[in-house]
Structures are given as structure tokens and as C-alpha cells.
């Protein structure tokens, strides 16, 4: 499985959805990329991802406009709306924007929907590399339940694989590094679209360019865990995640269930980080223009869980509006080392919403995350036996970057509700 | 519930689907109507129903052509394809054909799909009686899973009820007597579309013309039995029914479950009778141009069950090709009297695929149907206690129109596999 | 179906569960019977029912004691615990208590659990009327999920029907008039126990005494509606019902779904009325010794719904502690006339928790129940068209027993949250 | 997770169920152990496991006798029936038999049912290490749906963990090496019993002796994959597996789904090998005394799949009746090396029942299993790209122990229906 050779660590980047919904514009992408290059790149952040509906010239929010015309080339392939992405003019597509991102030492990603545009099917437009046309390969009764852009593709039809190949050939020409495919991992109406997942895997392998494949939305069914690993680099464990405690609380169980499927090149995905300034042109998740509704304790808890579990980290807010505290939260090199280098993460126990996870690294360190997911202050402890440790260790608080001295046999801390600690034992 | 005032007996008629799929032409409708008037009307047969896609000029089979243009008026309402229904020319719609059917002393029916044409939504065409347009009322992610003609209608939207009202106003102008609405009773993807069922009820009540409302496809969920009774005259108990024994065998259970919901004006529907010459331009049900694959015993069993249960009777074959035996099967006045006048039908017992049903009439007769639904010859009996009878009775074989003499305490007959008897005890 | 000849109106009575859990004693039964005879009999109340575990000498609450010995005769049949039912001494069983109840002009009922006592199976005791023994007919892996008293009976086994026959023969000797069979209509673990329902029907028919058959607990699956009608006189539409608004609120939907199955001798059951003094020796339903937590408006709403729907009415509180208001609530002869004589009840509409039901009687009256099931004051209206009325009517408020004058075309009243009205239009 | 330190390769052994049902006797266990020591030990076979109901003195078949008394010690713990296991006399339990097995250089295993004996609960007997008694910890409505021996244990009750500890303390005293716990991984009635799985893990850890923990029956829900890995060494992927092709055919999908959860110390289990002489005193699986109904091709296919997937291998037949062919089938050292040493097994593809799996080892070998699971002869191929190979390889047929020469780019073989090949590429 060739795709496990890239994304050897969980991808880190920025995605436009949480702040700009379906409406992000080129200057905003460039601005966030510049910010990332300047402030975050050195910590491992690298992907800049344009989320949904970049072909829709009139997108104004996270609410889709049904049946509006999308920008499309002669081969039924969606292309960027030039009013929103001026550099795409002249048939350049996303190549100039990708070039810019690459010039900053970063990588460029896009979002696509599973399938073929409904407008291509209604007009029965041409396909590249086959004399079949859009209507020949469409599955007209396979739709996305929340957006009118596409029909599914019937992989039993001649020309179907050619269509998907033509898409990724175009993205390779644009020099795309990351593709988030939506309406595919859990389609709500029809479970996972396994045949189209496999077709997209083949199309990427065929295009000759390494691209991280990310599957949405979730919850991806655990039943298909093998298929996700064998075809994708990351896949969503949840439906859309927002800045609500109950969604964060729920993620502990999801991480527990998927923990056996975390590995080099394949990363169950806890979804984007709704941090900083979000909802600027989005009302998804029941919010509007705001700073993240998560408390600081909750933000630390989220980053701790995502890091020890090794979920991809995709920042959702407008980076340029980050305050000092938020920037520090996502650039703590000691925490990010856990995210990048530790492995074997497992939930040690969960009792009454006191939760402990641990992992280790190749330098002999053990990492311990203590969580108080309850509504009361609580003492959270873990023993050496539970951690499979034997001798005295030096403890370090990775969030505070402070030595805590020698410990042995057991550690125990009193945590506020929704709070957590991330410790290194060496 | 006004609609219980009509269809006081289970509707009887002819439907074009089993023989002509989506392709029936005006002369075929007229020819079958003439046959019905001449040979069947006197026995109670009266509805002549044009099934699906009469707006599709190029329909050639039971297989739908995705996304082809349908004939539509300026108000987003489908109208007959004139190449197939010449009398519809000049904006006459089905009025001339309905007039012809009425001139024969019969009634005229049409099939429609739930919703609004996809093409109307894509073109955002006008609606009658509201300044909203097609896109304003469509539910673009509510589709039929087996046909691309329509989107659902969102009954929460202003103009939605106006649209349905405008449809039935048109059908009233055409003098339609019977409407079979499809993709609504069991939508496969989304269960029953209860809001659109209620909207159609209102639209019929609003149009001022009595029209029998028939809901398809099935199996209609028993969970919504009250809703079906309160809004429709008939609704399907099964998915599409064809000339396979296992489907007929299965109908005994369906009839049993729905037997408490049979009543004046509301008739659970066992679907059309695939008898005689069927599959002429249809490959649905896995067959082609053929005579019904049911054996004679099975045909009698079907007619016996449909009659005592009081399912609507809609003949599916090309009537003009009926042989003598088939015509007699559907014009046995003694059997049809049971269908028309008996009530209180109940399954007396079912043991090892020996099944007995009974009903009664206002003249003091008891009707008994004995079924051998097994694969072996079997003796099927029933006692006076089970039938709640007390004295000696005169028995009559209604299929053979023969007196069987006096009986008391119990009757018992040996039946071939798949065979049945229908008896009158008076 | 012989059993539809009795219980021609929905049964009305008293049941010991809501006040005494599993612990009721003979003197309490007698006391409640005397109260009923004196204060309620003239209004139609007649059944006095001893609920669960009358064989358990040490029952102290609604919480069952697992595996305690139960009183049993030599034929594996449970008999009353004499310390709780002194008149049962000497092998008299419930005959003396039934005699007493009969002497008051009332009828006597008992509760039983589906199946055969576990203790009989473990001891492999004898059965009456067969040389098979308890272990031969038990289904040892068919249990009740909330009580350890019984195993199911395997109706495929020789002796199984004999066992059930022997039970009802005993109850006939005791002159029981009403049997509530538990763990059978919705068994939680295994859906409805349809074979044992049919066996009990046969056993009652066989015993030669009319006994009302009531099936518990619910929700009985609508899927088996035909079977319930054909075998029982009443069956529960819900799980245990208590004095919580959300359970009452939920009952509107349940009544709507089952409204087509209400008929002479067969009554979907909304469960006992948790009114007056309840929870005396019961903690079921999350309460303790208390007066009903329902407000007066809610009590009237409950009685209105139960009456127009025609649910059985089984009072749950200690009757002797009724206050004036409660006694009047259950003895309003005008409301009870609706319960006893009206028919054809249907939900006219439900919009935003404004709900209207109507029914009629043989004297030409129409009954209308207006409900405000919302949390805000609301105006609840209904038109003559919706009621299928045509001319001017005289309206009467049945709860207030007041004439409201002439009305035509529409009636409309402002109701407090959770409040209702019951009107007669004549 | 300490238990991942043992069972570092998938356990291999013999189990008495397939040949002796619930009835195996000591001399048969000894005889099979001697055979294993003499003929199989050198190939890695080591566990000798006594399956279900060794406490039942009168067991005669695979059909359980309900409610018969089981041998039990004073602390509610089942002990061997001495008539069947004479060395257990004098309170020795399985210690003498374990000693014997150990003396042969093999390991000893037993089967137990989840829970506490029903008879202990009915008699309310003592427990070891707590003053609570059987009835205090039982979950009386948690049963096994196919056997009457036990009730579940309520892990919320004081004394519950003590009870499980006392069981494994006893097994440690007996020097048991392997425990197969039944009615726990998929309980049919209640899904997986996760709390009792965790309690058993704790009890084994507490007892101080390494014991392989095997969970039955299946299919274990994939949803709980993390929990199974964290608590057990092996768990069943299927319900009981027998010598029917459709069950073997079905195993390919099961192995595919679970392939990501195979690892050191934790082995998804494809169930016992119904090979050789089986059904001697068992009618489970629809058979009787017989030689395996699998054809030779099917037997090779089964061994190939089990080996490359790395399922535990537990032989089900009476070993002493093995013919030469069967013994060779299970002692092919080249195939067993794949089972013991290869890793990373994955399904390369599956198309029309042509299936290819591959794995590798630390010596640089690639193993390829080609399966024709269809009903027709078929050519099964795989490319170097699919195998992620690059250069020319030497191919060897491991079943035939033959060099096949140099291969490059692709291999392809024509296989009979149900046949397979296992190749080493080096």
C-alpha cells in the first residue's frame, strides 16, 4: 500500500471551513498560508486546504445554494471560480495558488465531493480519456443528502474509472498535495461508498503524484476499518465537530474504539480544531462569527487528546486573528513531539469520566495524559502497573514545560472539570 | 374523512404497467377500455389507469431513461407526451382520453410520481397560484431511488401546497377519477413521505372532484396504518408484485397483518394481477413478453385471496389477448360478490401452510377460503367452532358454481399444492 | 372470536400495582372493593384486580426479591400466599376473595406472569392432565428480563397446552373474571411471545368461563395488531405508565397509531391511571408514597384522552384515600358515557401540539376533545368540515356539565398548557 | 497489557468439542495429549483443551441436559465430574490431568461459561474471599440463550470480582495454561459482556499465572475490537464453525475485516479446525460421527487462510484417528512457519471470488496465498505492484515443498474450485 509511505506522521495544517464555510477567497488562503509559514511551519504545520465549493462563484456562507451553476471545464471537472480565485484565470486552475503555497515551503490541499456534477449529468457533457459521457457513468439516484452539487459515479460503468483518473490527473497538474473527499466515508443515506473510495485510491496511484487522501464526513463505520486503512490516509471518526463540550466529551469513546487502527500513513481523524476566530462566514455548528466557545481548559484537553491519539491536526480558525495564547497552544514543541513521535497510544482506563491515556516513544519515554471529563473537580491517578513501568521516573509537565521531579509507583493530580495534563515520564 | 365516501367497494380496473411498462400508447388504452366495457364492466370492472411516465415521449420499456426531458406545462406540471397520446394535442391533456373512457361508462385513472419534476427545479420554472417558483419548494435531496423524474416537495415551504393543489386542479379539469401516486408509501430511502401524503389528501379535497387515491410502492409500513386510512383509499402492502409463487405465498402474511385495516373506502392493496399477456414492453419482475407464469391453481388461489381479503383488483395484462379461461377467472360473479359484499374477513388459522380465511355478508352467508400453500397435497379443514357457526349449512363451491350439499360441524377438502377453494355456507 | 363477545365496553376497575407494588394484602383488596361498590359501581367501575406476586409471602415493595420461594400447588401452579391472603387457607385459593367481590356486585381479576415457575422447573414438579413434568415443557432460556419467577413454556412440547389449560381451569374454579398476563406483549428480550398468547387464548376458551384477557407490558408491537385483536381483549400500548407529563404527552401518538384497532371486545390499553394516593409500597416510576404528581389539568387531559379513545380505565391509587375532586374526576357520568358509548374515535389533526379528537354515538351526538399539549397557552380550534358536520349544533362542556349554546362552522377555545376540553355537539 | 507478553504466536492445540461435544473423558484427553506429544509437538502444537461441561457427570452428547446438577465446590465453583475425570478425586480438580499434560511437554486448557452456576444462586451458596453469597452477585436475568448452567455476574456488586478472582485462583492451583470463556464475546441476547470480560482479565492478572484467554462465541462485534485486544489473547470472529463450505467461504470476509487487529499476543480466532474424525459424540453443526466433510482442496484452503491470517489453530478431531494425509496437512513445517513467523497479512484483492492475501517475514520473504473461492476453475494472478515487490524472486510452493523457479512482475495459476496455493517469494 503505497499511500502509507506518505503522511508518515499525522497531517497538520489549516482548513478554511470553520471560519469561511463555503466562501473562502484566494487572498484569505494566501494570508493564512503566509501566517502559517511565518509562525507555525517550524513546528510542523504544513497543509493549507481550501474547503468545499470553490467552484461556486456566489457562495456567501456555509449554507449551500441549491442548483446554482458551478464552474466546470469541458470534461465535466469542476474548476475554481475565478471571481474568488483570480489566479485561476486563463485555465490555470489552482496551479498558481499551489505554486504560491509551495513557495512558502508549505503544501496545498483541496476539498472535493464524491461523484460527478449534477449539471454535467443534466447536460450530458464529455469526459476525458473515454468516449463515454457524464450520463453514462452517473448513478443518478446516488446523491449527497445535504448538498445538490453531485451525483455518485457507478463504478460498474465503462468510463467511470477514467473520470476519476481525469480528476486526479488535473489535481496533479495543479500540484495538489492533499485531497479531502467529502460525502464518502459516511454518506448518511447509503453508509460508506466503498467502491468510489477504492476508485479514488486507484486514481491517485495512477496520477503519479503523492497526495494525502482524507475521507469525510464521519462517523466512518468501524465495520470498514480495513478498507479505510487500505485506501486512505485519514478518515473522520465523527460527524462535523464544533466547539461544544459534548462533542469533545464524546471523542474519548471514538478515539478508544479506533485506537487500534492508528499507524504510519493511516490516521483516524478527530476532525478540525474549532479554535481561535471562527464562524466568520459560516453558521454551521449553530454558531456565528465568534471566538471558540471552548474554555482554555477544554482547548488544552482537546489538544492533549488529539496529540496523544495522533489525530491529524487541522486548524479551523482564521490564523491571522490568533491571539498569543492560541498560537502558543498550537506551537508547544513538547506537546507536538508527542503528536509526531509517540506511538502505541492506548486508553489505560476510564472510570466515572476520569480517563487516562498513555503512549511511548523510541527514546524510552512514556507519555501520560490525564483527563477529568466530569463536571466536578477530580483526582486522576495512574499506577506504574497500569502503565507497565517499573522504576523511578522523572516527570515533566509538557504544557507547562516544567520538571515535576522524581515519581514512582503512581502519579495522581487533582484536575478541574474538563481539564487535563500531559506528562512525560523519562 | 370525505374520501371514505367513495371507493366504497375495493376498486377494480386495468393498469398498463404489467404489460406496457412505461410506454403505453393512447390506442392501447382505448383498446383495453373498449374490451373492459364490452366484457367486464357488467361484473364491476371500471377503472382504466395509465401508469408511469406518460410525459416521456421516448419511453420504450419498463426501464427508465435517466434525465430525458419530460413534457411539462408552464407551471411545472407534467402533461401527456403527444406522440404517445395524440388526443392531448392543443393543450387538451388527458381530457379527451378521459372523455372517451367515460363515454364507455368507465372511469379514468393516471399515475404520478410524488414531487416536482427535477427539470422544473433545474430550470426554476413557475408555479400556479403562487409567485414562488419550483426551486423554492423543492427538497433537492429528497429523491426517488429508482427514477430520475422528480424531487420531493418541502411542505414547510410557502407555495408547496399551492403546487400540489395546482396538480389536482389540472387533473380535475381532465376529469380524472383515480390517481396512483408513486414513490410515497414506502420510499426505500426515507420510509413513508407522510407530509406529502397529507398534502395530496388536501389537494384532492380542495379540487372538488372525487378521485380515488392509491399509494405506491410498498410495503407501506404498518406503523403508519392510521395515516394511510385517514388519507388514502388504497395503499400497497408489498413491493412490486409479479408472477412468482414466492410473492404470492408471502401475501398471506401481509393480508393477515393488514386485515384489521380493511374497511369502507380504505383498502390495503395486494397490487396488480399479473395475469394473461404481460411483459409486452416491460422487463420488470425478471420477465419478458409472456403469458403469466402462474399456474391455473395459483391464479385461482390469488383471486381467492384477493377477493376474500378485499384487495383492489387491477388487471395487469393486455386485456384483448385474454383467453377464455382468464376472462372467466376474472368474471365469476359469485366470487366477485364475495369481493364486493362480504366483510369481516379474518384468517381463521394457519398451520404448516394450510390456511383458512372466512368472512360473511349481510344475507347471513359465511364465506370460507381454504388454501394449501404448501408443496405437498394436503387436507385442509375448518370446524364450525372456528367459523363461529352453529347449525347445518348448505355449501357451495363458488369457483365451480356447484352445490356441495349439507354440511355440519366441519368441512375438509384435499387440495393440490398451491390450490384453494372458495365456499359459501348459507 | 368468542372473546369479543365480552368486554363489549372498555373494562373499568382498580388495580393494586400503583399503590401497593407487589405487596397488596387481602384486607386492602377488600377495602378497595367496598369503596368501589359504594362510590363507583353505579358509574360502571367493576373489576378489582390483584396485581403481581400474590404468591410471594415476603413481598415488601415493587422491587422483586430474586429466587425467593413462591407458594405453589402440587401441579406447578402458583397459589396465593396465605399470610397475605388469609381466606386462601385450606387450599381455597382466590375463591373466597372472588366470592366476596362478587357479593358486592363486582368482578374479580388477577395478574399472572407468562410461563411456568422456575422453582417448578428446578424441582421438576408434576403437571395436571399430562404425565409430562415441568422440565419437559419449560423453555429454560426464555426468561423475563425483570423478574426471576418464571421460565417460558415451549408450546411445541407435549404437555405445554395442558399446563396452560390447568392454570385457567384453576382460575375458573376460583371464579376469576379478568386475567392480566405479564411479560408477554412486549418481552423486551424477545419481542411478543405470540405462541404463548395463542396458547392462553385457547386455555381460556377451554376453561368454559368468560375471562377478560389483558396483555402486558407494552409497547405491544403494532406489527402484531391482528394477533392481539384475535386473542386478547386488551393489550398495552406503552411500557409502564406513571405520573409524568412526558409519558402522557407521548400517549397521544400511541393512541393515534392504535386508533384503527379499537373495537368491541378489543381495546388497546393506555395503562393504569396513576391518580390519587399512589406509591404507598412501591418505588416503581421513580416515586414513593405520594399524591399523583399530575396537575389537575393533566388529570383531566388524561381522562379525556382515555375516554374518547376508549382505553380501559384501571384506577391505580388507594381508592379509600380519594379526595372529593378525584372521585368526581372518575365519576363524571357525562364523560363516562363517551367512554362507554361513543365510537369511531379519530385524531382530527395535530399541529404544534394542539390536538383534536372526535367521535360520535348512536344518538347522533358528536364528541370533540380539544387538547393543548404544548407548554404555552394556545387557542385550539376545529371546523365543521374537519368534523364532517353540516348544521348548527348545541355545544355542551362535559367536564363542567354546562351548555355552551349554539355553535356553527367552527369552535375555538383558549386552553392553558396541558389542559383540555371535552365537548358534546348535538 | 501484560497478557500480550504471552501467546506471542497464535496458539496451536487440540480441543475436545468437535469430536466429543460436552462429554470428553479423561482417558480421551490423555490419549490425544500423548498423540500430540508424539506426532505434533515438534511442529508447535501444544495446548490440550477440555471443552464445555466437564462438571456434568451425565453428559452424553453435544446436547445439554437442562438443569441437571453440576459438580461444585463449597465456594460455588464448578469442579470436574469424577466419573469422567477419575484423577480429580479427592478434591484434586484438574491438577493431576494438568500435571500429566505438562509431563509431556504440553500445556493444559479448560473451557468455562461466563457467570456463576444457576444452582449456586438457587441454593445461595458461599463465595471465597467475601462474605457475600451467590445470590448477592448474580444477575438473575442475564442468561446464556443456549445452556442452563449459569447466570451472569453483576460486576457492580460487592463480591463479584472476588468470585472471579476465586475461580482463577483455583485454575492457577490446577496449573491451567489456557482458558476458553464462553457466552461472552457475542452473547446473542445481550451483545458482548464487556464488564465480565474486564473482570476476567483482572482475575487472571491477579492470579499470578500466565493463562491464555480465549473468548467465545462469535461473531465478536468489531465495534469492541479495542476492548478485545486489551483484555484477551484470542476471540472468535464467527459463530460455531463446522465442515461446510459456505462457512469457510464466509471466513474470507471475516478475516479481511479483522486483519488490522492481528498482533503479538492478540489473535482474532477463526475457530477450531473440523478435521479428521469428528462428531463422535456430538451432533452440533448438523452432523454425526464422520470424517470431515471438507474436500482435500477445502482443507488445504482452510489451513492456508488460517495460516497466513494467523488465526489460532485448534484441531477439532480425534487425533488418534488421523490418517497420514491429515497429519501431514497439519505438520507441514513450511506452512506452519508462515503461521508462526510471518506478519502484516493483508488481502491484496478480491474479485469474483478470486482472492489473494500476502504477508512477509523478517528474513525478507513474501508469502502469497492464492484462493479460488468460486465454483468454477479460475486463473488467479497477482502483480509485483500489488505485492509491492520490485525485483525477480524465487518462488516456492509451500504445500508441495517444491521450487517453482524465478518469477517476475506477476504470478498466475489456474486453480480448481475451492482450491488454493501458498507461495513463498524470496
From TrEMBL, chains A, B, C, D:
Reactions it catalyzes: Hydrolysis of terminal, non-reducing alpha-D-galactose residues in alpha-D-galactosides, including galactose oligosaccharides, galactomannans and galactolipids
Keyword Aminoacyl-tRNA synthetase appears in the UniProt entry: no
Alpha galactosidase C-terminal domain segment(s): 352-425
Domain of life assignment: Bacteria
Pfam families xrefs: Melibiase_2, Melibiase_C
This protein's record includes keyword Signal: yes
UniProt KW keywords: Disulfide bond, Glycosidase, Hydrolase, Signal
Family that this chain belongs to: Belongs to the glycosyl hydrolase 27 family.
Protein's recorded name: Alpha-galactosidase
Lineage of the organism: Bacteria, Bacillati, Bacillota, Bacilli, Bacillales
Amino acid at each position: 500500500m503505497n499511500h502509507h509511505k506518505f503522511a508518515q506522521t499525522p497531517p497538520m495544517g489549516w482548513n478554511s471551513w470553520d471560519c469561511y464555510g463555503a466562501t473562502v477567497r484566494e487572498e484569505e488562503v494566501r494570508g493564512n498560508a503566509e501566517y502559517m509559514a511565518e509562525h507555525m511551519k517550524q513546528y510542523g504545520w504544513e497543509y493549507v486546504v481550501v474547503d468545499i465549493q470553490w467552484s461556486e462563484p456566489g457562495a456567501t456562507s456555509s449554507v449551500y445554494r441549491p442548483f446554482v451553476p458551478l464552474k466546470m471545464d469541458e470534461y465535466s471537472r469542476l474548476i475554481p471560480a475565478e471571481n474568488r480565485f483570480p489566479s485561476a484565470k486563463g485555465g490555470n486552475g489552482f496551479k498558481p495558488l499551489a505554486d504560491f503555497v509551495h513557495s512558502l515551503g508549505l503544501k496545498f490541499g483541496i476539498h472535493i465531493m464524491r461523484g460527478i456534477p449534477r449539471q454535467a449529468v443534466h447536460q450530458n457533457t464529455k469526459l476525458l480519456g473515454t468516449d463515454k459521457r457524464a450520463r453514462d457513468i452517473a448513478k443518478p439516484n446516488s446523491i449527497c443528502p445535504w448538498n445538490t452539487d453531485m451525483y455518485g459515479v457507478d463504478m460498474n460503468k465503462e468510463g467511470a474509472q477514467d473520470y476519476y483518473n481525469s480528476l486526479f490527473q488535473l489535481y496533479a497538474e495543479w500540484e495538489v498535495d492533499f485531497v479531502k473527499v467529502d460525502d464518502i466515508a459516511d454518506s448518511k443515506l447509503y453508509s460508506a461508498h466503498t467502491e468510489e473510495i477504492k476508485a479514488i485510491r486507484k486514481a491517485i496511484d495512477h496520477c503519479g503524484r503523492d497526495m494525502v487522501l482524507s475521507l469525510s464526513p464521519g462517523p466512518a463505520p468501524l465495520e470498514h476499518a480495513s478498507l479505510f486503512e487500505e485506501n486512505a490516509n485519514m478518515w473522520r471518526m465523527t460527524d462535523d465537530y464544533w466547539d461544544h463540550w459534548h462533542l469533545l466529551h464524546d471523542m474519548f469513546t471514538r478515539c478508544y474504539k479506533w485506537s487500534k487502527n492508528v499507524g504510519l500513513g493511516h490516521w483516524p481523524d478527530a476532525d478540525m480544531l474549532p479554535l481561535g476566530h471562527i464562524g466568520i462566514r459560516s453558521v454551521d455548528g449553530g454558531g456565528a462569527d465568534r471566538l471558540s466557545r471552548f474554555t482554555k481548559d477544554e482547548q488544552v484537553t482537546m489538544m492533549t487528546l488529539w496529540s496523544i491519539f495522533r489525530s491529524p491536526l487541522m486548524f479551523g480558525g482564521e490564523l491571522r486573528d490568533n491571539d498569543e495564547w492560541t498560537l502558543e497552544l498550537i506551537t508547544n514543541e513538547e506537546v507536538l513531539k508527542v503528536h509526531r513521535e509517540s506511538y502505541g497510544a492506548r486508553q489505560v482506563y476510564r472510570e466515572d469520566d476520569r480517563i487516562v491515556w498513555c503512549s511511548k516513544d523510541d527514546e524510552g519515554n512514556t507519555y501520560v495524559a490525564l483527563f477529568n471529563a466530569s463536571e466536578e473537580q477530580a483526582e486522576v491517578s495512574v499506577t506504574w502497573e497500569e502503565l507497565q513501568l517499573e522504576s523511578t521516573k522523572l516527570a515533566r509537565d509538557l504544557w507547562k514545560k516544567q520538571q515535576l521531579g522524581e515519581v514512582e509507583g503512581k502519579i495522581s493530580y487533582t484536575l478541574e472539570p474538563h481539564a487535563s495534563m500531559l506528562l512525560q515520564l523519562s
